[in-house]
Amino acid sequence: MVVLTEEQQKELNRAVDYFKGFRMAELKLDDKWNLNIIFKYLPKKATFRETTPIEKSVLPFLNGVREEGKINMFSSPSLISQVFGVDRKESIKLFDLWTINFNDECNYNIVKTEKDVDKEI
Predict the structure, then answer these.
(1) pLDDT the model gives residue 121
(2) Which residue, of 22, 38, 69, 83, has the fewest CB within 10 Å?
């Protein structure tokens, strides 16, 4: 059995919550190999936090807009401004947050707040 520090356990819990949105197989947290895989794919420069009330409304809303397929998603900031009454700058931030965290299950309880800067383009 792998023994984790309290800080490692908190990071692992955030990672597991993050990856739930990506339909990962059930993880055995006592298996060292699985832990290494989790930490390998967890974005290196990302930070995680709980969503705000407005984000809990907007992010699933954007999933619905995407599923409808009636508008180009790059026009979503304007739609966010109209529907949720936020200014343009805030609507762009919300759209950017959605693009970073998009998942089909609308699992947006915890969100990644920075793009993965280590990812090769």
Answers:
(1) 35
(2) 69
